Amino acid sequence: MFDEDAPGSDRPLAARANFLLSQLGFHVAQTFAARLAPLGIAPNHFGLLTHLEHGEGSTQQQLADALGIHRKVMVGLLDDLEQRGLAERRRHPGDRRAHAVHLTDAARQLLPRARRVADQHEEEILAALDVGERAWFVAALQRIADRTGNPPGVHPGLGAAIRSGNTTDGA
Question: How many CB atoms lie within 10 A of CB 137?
Fold first, then answer.
């Protein structure tokens, strides 16, 4: 018999939180991307559109700062959203050197549908848990996420996905 708590123990992968989180994270990311694909967006688009919805009129730099990504990465992501007809840059009314970013009407119509997809996906992922367990689980995940140093509500793969030219991952 082995001691699961002993450092360096030979625990099975299915008993390791890091492995389970990685396994689940991969599954959740893949299935979420597949569910958003019919809407013509990826998880990183959903994430940025959601942030933009709450900070409409923000400058590109303000968005980059809020998301913790380099401004050049933000430019690439906004270029992608503009090409998809989901965001537009306008001259900032208070700073002629800056651009204010706004959602398009298409994005405003898309976001409620994308949120329904996200809600249905989350419901399926958490179906094995009752209401109390779900609240505890989300709170525990938030505490763990807070210790990573990443901005709350921002996927750390967002910047990496854009830098690599892959706009289908992260949010």
Answer: 12
